[in-house]
Every structure is written in C-alpha cells, then in structure tokens.
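Writing this down once: the sequence line spells out the residues, with the fold written below as integer tokens. I am pasting one below:
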Amino acid sequence: MATLVNSVSPLTNPSPETLRTACGLFSNVPNFRSFSQNKGFTRVLASTHITISPKDSVWTLSNWKVGRKDTRNRDIRLNDAFFHLEFIVRKGHKPDVAQATQLLYDLCKSNKMKKATRVMEMTIESGIIPDAASYTFLVNNLCKRGNIGYAMQLVEKMEENGCPTNTVTYNSLVRGLCKHGNLNQSLQLLDKLMRKGLGGKPNLVSYNVLLTGLCKEGRTEEAIQFFRDLPSKGFNPNVVSCNIILRSLCCEGRWEEANELVAEMDSEERSPSLVTYNILIGSLASHGRIQHAFQVLDEMMRASFQPSAATFNPIISHLCKEGKADLVVKCLDQMIHHCCNPNDGTFNAIAVLCEGGRVQRAFSIIQSLGNKQNSSTHDFYRGVISSLCRKGNTYPAFQLLYEMIQSGFVPDPYTYSSLIRGLCVEGMLDEALEIFRLLEENDYRPILVSVISIHK
C-alpha cells in the first residue's frame, strides 16, 4: 500500500483499520452494488492524492500474508487485498499476475468463492488471460462445494472471453454434476459440449465419472449399456471402468455376471488390480459367502498382490457378527503374517463382539492372537476400547478393560483418555471426573484431550 501513496492529506499513511472504517460510511448509500464497501475504499484512496502510474505498469497488491495468523486477522487482510485489486482494475491498471492468482487460491481455501470468482473476472477485465491451472482450480472448488450452476455460468463467461474449456475443466463439471447435481444434466452437458466442439475431447476419465454416477443412482443396467458402448465412442474400458461396474454387480449379488466381467479382464489395461480383488472379497463377505471370499483371497496372493487391512476387514467383520471366534483368530493370524497392520476397521469389527455382550469372546480373540504371534496385544486392546468409546459403548469398554487388567495388561494414558471421552459422550460427566481425580491422586494423568472432553 505504501508504494501507491506519494503524499497524503489530511491523513498520513492510513492504516487498513482506518480504511475499513471509512468504507463503512458508504455502505448505506442507495444504488450501490453488493460490494458497496469497495466504493468507499476507492473514494478514500482517491482522496489521498495518489499519483497515477502509467496504464501499462504492473501494480502490486497489499500483502495479506504478513501479520498475525489467526483466522479473523487473515480474513481481514484477504478482504483488504481483494478490495485493493478491485481499485487497481477499476482505475485501468494491471495487477501483478502471480499475486492475483495466489489471492484466488487463498480465497478458495478460505471458502470465499464469490470473491475468488470475482478475482478471476477482474483478471480478465484487466487484459490478462488467466492460466489454465488457476481457472480449473476455481471451477473444481466451486463444483466440490456444490455450486454447480455457478461453475457452469463461469465456464460460459470464460469461453466468451477467450478462455476455452479444456478436458480437465470439463471433468470437474461432470464430476460435480454427478455428485451434487443431476446425472441427466451431466449427460446433457456432455452432449452440448460435443455438439459445440467445446471442452476438448472427453477422455476415459470423463466417461468413468459418468459410469460412477449411474451406478451410484442404482441405474446398473444403463451403466452396463454405457460401458458396452464405450468402444463405439473411441475408448476401450480400462480396469477402473471394469471395477465401477463390478462393484455395482457385486452389491446387487449378481455373481455370475460379476464372474463373466472378471473373465473379460485379460488385457494389460484391464488386468485385475488390488481394488478388483478387494471389491470381490468385500462383497462376498458382506453377503455371507466367507468360504468363497477366502478362495478369492488365496487367488489374489497367488497373483502376487499384497493384501491390506482393507482386504481382511470385511471378512473379520462378518465373522465377528456371526461370533465365529476361531475363524476370526485364523484371519487375524493370516493378516499379521502378511504384515498387514490393523486399522480402525479391524478394531471396529472386533468391537462388534463387545457391543453384542460377548466381551469374553473378544478378549479371548485378542489374547489368542497375541499368544500365537508372540507379540504385544496392547494396540488391539487400545484400538477396540477406543472404537467402543467413540460409539458411546463405554460399559462394554470397561468390561474389556477389566478382563485386560486381570490378564496383566497395564492401561496407558491413551486408553484412559478414550474411556473418559466415552463417558463424556454418554453424558456421564460425574463418572468421568471421578476417574480423572483417581488418576491424578495416583500421579497418572491422561493426555490433555480428556480434560478438554470433560470441560466441553
């Protein structure tokens, strides 16, 4: 800002706060645009006798990245930079392109989408053609936040100003329509862009997005037909395309058709992937076809794919629901043998046993696993207790803790913190405070998050 002001009368180097106060004086003047404050901003700057630089010079924006980093102050500085940009463009000057682009990015990250869009428009008004990356970033962020109509209007306006839509931008629109809007509208957009010759050529990613949208809406038959028609559009379906259809078929229990599709996946681009096997195993397990799921798991490993926790968790989850402890131990044993670290999905599956009143069975599974692997069971204990407490099942969590302590397990601060948090979730604040006091008396303090939970 200092670089713009040569002499000031009657104020000397007005602060941003002074300028914002002055702007407010004009906010109630009738017939002003929605951004009325920037009119006041312009008047204040105009009244300070600024020496105007040549029209073709590049003007720098006020630096919004310096100063305190709390959200409120950062928002104020972002708004100052935005109003400064408006002033510069209205006076016919060109802003620094790198700064204007960064301002657009930062406004998007702060969810100020209207101002970010206006920055793009002002950049064009100043005679600068924005780079494709910033344009696509803005469209993508609008679509992610559900502002599909606004994004489509922006694309049309940008095209009118010589910024043609590319395939990446088009894919953002299609994905946004599939996720937040209307799938039929997405298909209409595809047809429109093709007829107008806009957006470059849709690529396979575009069609895979549409396939996902059809399957998400339960329109499996249409998705299959769309999938079969891809070669006529000049594209051969890849493994992603196949996985989209496969997931939909498996969810509906259409196993014969799923097997036929897998049999078709024999070319290099369509060879089954880890995702393919995980889809099959997860769907089979959820439908209770555990033996078949184990067969696919064996086939997967013969194909040299490394299983992950996501591979085993659906099987473990179903076995826990059926209370088949021996098979759960076998599956966990195999999981650890293949160096698959358990995750929240694994702990959630075992927690189901405790929720169903089978705490002793869950305890025996964890103990058996620890004995077989000759390894610590602390992670499993902590994970299961945390899972129970997050879902408000604190009583079975305490039952499991009792079994653990009887077997020699010493709870750590993380475990106690989970229990205290669980009590708070269930509204049992007195009990949570009592545990906290007992722990303090014994010089054993849970981590800080427990105190925050009780306070809230």
User: Anything to note?
Assistant: Residues 412-456 form one domain. Strands lie at 58-59, 94-95.
